[in-house]
Specification:
This is TPR domain protein in aerotolerance operon. Keywords: TPR repeat. The structure is a single chain. By secondary structure, the chain is mainly alpha-helical. Among the domains are: 160 residues, Rossmann fold, CATH 3.40.50; 114 residues, Tetratricopeptide repeat domain (Serine Threonine Protein Phosphatase 5, Tetratricopeptide repeat, Alpha Horseshoe). The chain has a 3-stranded parallel β-sheet, with helices on both faces.
C-alpha cells in the first residue's frame, strides 16, 4: 500500500519480494493523486485487501514519519475488535528538521512559515503496543526490519518453509555427441566456409518487406508509432498510436489541433488539461483555453507553464476586446458624419433654388423698368443696383457641394475618444479630413499590431508537453493510482495542509 492524502494498492498480497522492490523504488510524493497524510486510510485499505483475500488474521507494518492524534484514533477504530496487528517503522527525528524541496527551497505552510517536521516516537510506540504490534526506528544496517520480523509471528513464512517446488533438470548435454557426429560431414573442404559466407551476406541485407514483418512481429503499434514520432513522421505516428496521449501529441505536432483536442476527450489529469488548453489556444478558442489553464492552476498552483500561457491569453483577449470597442466607436463616428452631411446638402440645394428665384425676379424688374420714362432711367438703374446688392446673396466660395466639416468641439471630442482607446498621434487636427485620417490610422495600425501580436502569441505558447514519462515506470504507478482514485470517493480531508 502507498498513501498520502489517500491510500492506494500497489500490488496484491504476494510473496514475490522482487516485484515489490521494483515498484517501491519508483514511489515519490510527486506521483500521488492527493497530497497529505492519511495513514488511517492506508490501514483501512490494508485490512480490506486481506479480507478480500480470505485472511482474517495478519500483521500490518506501517512506515511513517508522523502520526497525528486524529490518525491514531482512526487506526484504533479500524483495528479494534479484529485479529490484525499493527507494527510501526518510524522515520525522522524527534528534534525535527525542515523539509527540503526539489528546487532547493524549504517547505512552508499556508502562512509562509517554514515547516519543521518532528516524529512523535513515543506516541507511535504506544499505538503499536496497544494494537499488538512492535515499534522500530529506521536504521541503515537493516536491523530495524530484522527486529520487526523477529518479534512478529509470520505464520505464512513458516508454512512456506514446508512447501516443495519442482525444478526441471537439464540432461540435454548427453545428446551432444550424437549431434557432433551428424555435423562432421560438413567439415569437408569447400563446404562449411562458403555456407557461412552466404549466411552472413544474406543476413546483412534484410529487405524492407522483411524489416516490416519483423517490426510487426516484435513491436506493438505504440512502439511503431514512437519510431515514426521520433522520425518526425507525425501523421503516421498519430495513425499508429493507441495511447490517447501519444496520439494527441502526434496530432499536435502535425498541426491538427482539433484532432489533438479530440484525442484527450475524457482525460482530466493536470497534464491532460494543460495539453487541452494548448490545443484550444491554437484553435483561437481563447475562453475555453483560459478555462482549461485555470483548472490546471486550481489543481497545481505552481504550474509555471500554465501561468505563463494564461497571462498571455488574457492579454490577447483584452487586446481583442479593445480592438472591437475601437471599431464600434469608429462606426458610430462615421454614422454621425453621414448624418451631418445630409442636412448640409439639403441646405445648399435650398440656397441655390432661392438664389435662382432671386435672379429671375431681378430680371423681371429690370424689364419693367425699361418701359418707364427715359429721364428716370438713371435713378431706376441706381435704385435697381441698390436692390440687387441688398436682395441677392453673395456667392459662396465653394459653389460645389462639399462634405460638412465637424465643429471644433466635435473634432476635439472625437480626438479625445481616440486618445482614450489607444494613443496614436501627438497633434490632433481640427478639420474634418484630418479628424477622419486620425480615426483611420489607428484602425490600420491596430490590424498590423494584432497580426504581429497573434504571431508572437502563437510562437510564445509553450509546446505540448510530451508524454515521454510513459517510458518511466513511475508513470505506470501514477496511472494505476489515478485509476483507483477515480473509482473511489475523494477524501473529505487529506490530513496535513502543507
Amino acid at each position: 500500500m502507498a498513501y498520502a492524502g489517500d491510500a492506494y494498492t500497489l500490488s496484491p498480497i504476494t510473496t514475490d519480494a522482487a516485484t515489490l522492490a521494483n515498484a517501491i523504488q519508483y514511489l515519490s510524493p510527486e506521483i500521488m493523486p492527493f497530497q497529505g497524510a492519511r495513514a488511517d486510510l492506508a490501514v483501512e485499505q490494508a485490512v480490506k485487501l486481506m479480507t478480500q483475500a480470505g485472511t482474517t488474521r495478519g500483521s500490518i507494518v506501517l512506515f511513517a514519519d508522523d502520526l497525528s492524534s486524529s490518525e491514531s484514533d482512526a487506526i484504533r477504530k479500524v483495528l479494534n475488535g479484529t485479529d490484525f496487528t499493527l507494527s510501526i517503522l518510524a522515520f525522522g527525528s524527534q528534534s525535527g528538521a525542515p523539509i527540503p524541496l526539489n528546487d532547493g527551497s524549504l517547505l512552508t505552510d499556508s502562512q509562509g512559515r517554514t515547516v519543521v517536521a518532528r516524529t512523535p516516537y513515543k506516541q507511535m510506540q504506544q499505538l503499536a503496543k496497544s494494537l499488538g504490534g512492535n515499534f522500530a526506528t529506521y536504521q541503515t544496517d537493516n536491523s530495524d526490519i530484522e527486529k520487526l520480523v523477529a518479534a512478529s509471528s509470520f505464520e505464512g513464512f513458516t508454512e512456506s518453509l514446508g512447501q516443495t517446488l519442482d525444478i526441471a533438470i537439464n540432461h540435454g548435454y548427453w545428446l551432444l555427441p550424437i549431434a557432433l557426429l551428424l555435423v562432421l560431414p560438413l567439415f569437408r573442404k569447400g563446404v562449411i566456409f562458403p555456407m557461412v559466407g552466404l549466411m552472413v551476406v544474406s543476413a546483412g541485407y534484410p529487405t524492407p518487406a522483411q524489416a516490416s514483418v519483423l517490426d510487426g512481429a516484435f513491436l506493438n503499434k505504440d512502439q511503431r508509432g514512437l519510431a515514426e514520432y521520433e522520425a518526425n513522421n507525425f501523421d503516421q505516428a498519430a495513425a499508429l498510436f493507441q495511447d490517447p496521449r501519444w496520439k494527441s501529441a502526434a496530432y499536435y505536432h502535425a498541426g491538427d489541433y482539433q484532432s489533438a483536442l479530440n484525442a484527450l476527450e475524457g482525460l482530466e489529469t493536470v497534464d491532460d488539461l494543460y495539453n487541452k488548453g494548448n490545443a484550444l489556444a491554437q484553435l483561437q478558442k481563447l475562453d475555453q483555453a483560459i478555462e482549461a489553464y485555470e483548472k490546471v492552476l486550481a489543481a497545481d498552483p505552481e504550474h509555471a507553464d500554465a501561468k505563463y500561457n494564461l497571462e498571455l491569453l488574457k492579454q490577447q483577449q483584452q487586446q481583442q476586446q479593445q480592438q472591437q470597442q475601437q471599431q464600434q466607436q469608429q462606426q458610430q463616428q462615421q454614422q454621425q458624419q453621414q448624418q451631418q452631411q445630409k442636412p448640409e446638402g439639403d441646405a445648399e440645394q435650398e440656397q441655390g433654388q432661392s438664389q435662382q428665384s432671386s435672379e429671375q425676379r431681378d430680371s423681371s424688374e429690370q424689364q419693367d423698368s425699361s418701359d418707364s420714362n427715359q429721364p428716370q432711367e438713371s435713378q431706376q438703374d441706381q435704385s435697381q443696383d441698390n436692390v440687387d446688392s441688398s436682395a441677392s446673396p453673395q456667392p459662396s466660395s465653394s459653389s460645389e457641394p462639399e462634405p460638412q466639416t465637424p465643429s471644433k468641439k466635435e473634432s476635439e471630442k472625437s480626438s479625445e475618444q481616440v486618445q482614450n482607446t489607444e494613443p496614436q498621434s501627438d497633434a490632433q487636427s481640427e478639420t474634418g479630413e484630418a479628424g477622419q485620417d486620425s480615426n483611420e490610422s489607428p484602425q490600420s495600425d491596430s490590424k498590423v499590431t494584432s497580426q504581429s501580436q497573434q504571431q508572437e502569441a502563437n510562437s510564445d505558447l509553450r509546446k505540448l508537453e510530451q508524454v515521454e514519462s510513459a517510458r518511466d515506470p513511475s508513470y505506470l504507478l501514477k496511472a494505476q493510482m489515478l485509476l483507483q482514485a477515480k473509482e473511489k470517493e475523494t477524501p473529505s480531508s487529506t490530513g496535513k495542509n502543507w
